[in-house]
Write a structure and sequence with these properties.
Strand content: 15-25%
Structural class: alpha/beta
Oligomer: single chain
CATH architecture of the largest domain: 3-Layer(aba) Sandwich
Largest sheet: 4 strands, parallel
Order of helices and strands: EHEHHEHEHEHEHHEEH
Length: 213
């Protein structure tokens, strides 16, 4: 099986790669990336036609490589799947859908995000699935860039503070970016803490196994 992973940041590569290697070491992964997309998204503040066309270039490369499915890894671009899925035969998975479906089993959901546009994409999915869902969202716009600058400790400490701020106010806490995956084992809130990479891999592999029957 061949799976394409579509990235907008370098920080998402290791988390999804590790998750696939743990669950299905024999899967062939194709990594496709445009690191300029996130800055463009932050500049425009929404999915513009130009951003969608640019994103589609990565999907075209995946389709031309005859992959079995496509896994996105950047939450800010999740809503592009609704626009572009009809153009491709390969299934396109949002970066967070498996994690959010799990979160929806709780009454009150806390979102921790480090990119301004991420809560918009996550909230639209949650509200579509469960219109009366209660969501408490904390976001520090641009915090993810500390990782690009080598300021991992500062990034991690500020994420910890957001998690601590939500703890006790919600029933589950969601770490919205793949770049926060490494914090999952360090944080010990009083409520469940969800991250996307492993949940995404489980959803992806279940789909492919069903497809092969």
């Amino acid at each position: 099986m061949k799976i394409a992973c579509i990235h907008a940041t370098t920080t998402a590569v290791a988390p999804i790669e590790n998750a696939f290697r743990e669950a299905a070491a024999d899967v062939e992964l194709l990594h496709l990336m445009d690191t300029g997309l996130l800055a463009l998204m932050e500049e425009k503040g929404e999915l513009t036609p130009d951003i969608i066309r640019r994103f589609s270039l990565l999907l075209n490369l995946a389709a031309e490589s005859r992959v079995d499915c496509i896994q996105l890894t950047c939450s800010a671009f999740n809503n592009v799947t609704a626009v572009l899925q009809p153009l491709y035969s390969a299934k396109i998975f949002r970066s967070d859908e498996a994690m959010l479906d799990e979160a929806l089993s709780y009454e009150r959901i806390g979102l921790v995000s480090t990119v301004r546009e991420t809560p918009i994409a996550l909230l639209s999915y949650l509200n579509e699935k469960k219109p009366d869902v209660q969501v408490e969202s904390l976001v520090e716009p641009g915090l993810i860039y500390l990782l690009f600058q080598g300021k991992k400790e500062e990034h991690d400490e500020r994420v910890r503070k957001m998690v601590h701020q939500l703890d006790g106010k919600v029933d589950v806490i969601v770490l919205s970016q793949y770049s926060m995956e490494h914090l999952a084992e360090q944080l010990q809130p009083s409520v469940p803490l969800l991250t996307a990479p492993k949940a995404s891999v489980r959803r992806c592999m279940a789909y492919l196994q069903q497809l092969s029957k």
